[in-house]
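Slide 14.
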Amino acid sequence: MNNSINPYITAFKDIAQCRPETTLGSALSMINSSHEPVFVLDKNNKFLGLVSPYYTLFRKRYPYTTKVKSLIIVPPRINNSTHFYEIADFMISTRIYILPVMNEKEEIKGKVTARNIIKAAINQQELIKEIAESIKIEKAITARTDTKAKDIYSLLRQKATSRIILVNDKGKLAGIIARRDIEEAFTKPTTKQRFSTRKGKPINYSFDKEITTRFDSPISKFYIRNVLTAKKELGIEKVLQGMMRAGKNSIVIVDKNNYPSGIISIRTILKALAKLKPKREIPIIFRKPTKESTNYEMGKIYALLERLGKKLDKMSPVQQIKINFKKSKKPAGGIILFDITLQVEFFSGQNFIAEVKERKVEMGVREAIKRIEKQQRRS
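Slide 15: predicted structure.
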């Protein structure tokens, strides 16, 4: 399989798009999956970022009347040279399975999807064997079919999962409920909702009261009964191929009596793909702050910076990390301070810089790392 994503880029069309002033309820009504984002563009069609159903409804819980301009996530910059291993990492960390591909002018030139990458991977005999060996079947998280919607919502958030397997009173498979099904339960219009009379897609203004009522409804009103299943004995390779052929986002593993034991999802496969990523050492460049600094102290600083590099690299490949220590002159009767400058350079061309003045080197490094992480969250 070609390591870069260039062969798997598709045209930027059939994509949910909205303006910054669009409400969250209206934006989410445009999409069909909790892993599918809404692309936010300004009046000049400049790409601003994405709205994530997972982030807005499950990680947080924003009112549906919130303007999307305050909910925008800026995705990692992807171009022709980005490797599919890195894309898998990006998708796992953001829980967004459709990402834009940018050109040199920072314009969207296309999109890349989890499904396209996975299809290409499992069609290659050698690669599907590696994926199958790396696959870790997720444990089945189950609930009864008479569970209330609000309890399923809480379970989805608590377990940080995309779907719950539903069983009958004997524990046998009865259906499945995905995050998107819960979203539809609370975004699907009803006669009680109020909409704008303007032309175009209806915009929801307020239905918080009705959402509360729906939260108390049994999940049987919303779940899917037709579930794709497979026996574990079939073998992971055939299970994956069957899942892709069926066009499903998950497949439930059951025993001969139809008791669910596990589940394989798009996320499961992405994790397996990410494991195949060759290990890459991120260069960390620095000198001892003082001649008296011990190897033990330097080892702790290196470990802190290495951890930072691995964390940031999941969002955007890190080119190198540089840190500089400058010892301030000690004023009469004063305390020696260190001017610490931490810089993280990315292959995308983006740089983060943090400057800290601190008496103790390790404390200063930790503070600089916090500031870099804060910049990353805001970017």
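Speaker note: Confidence is low (pLDDT under 50) at residues 189-210.
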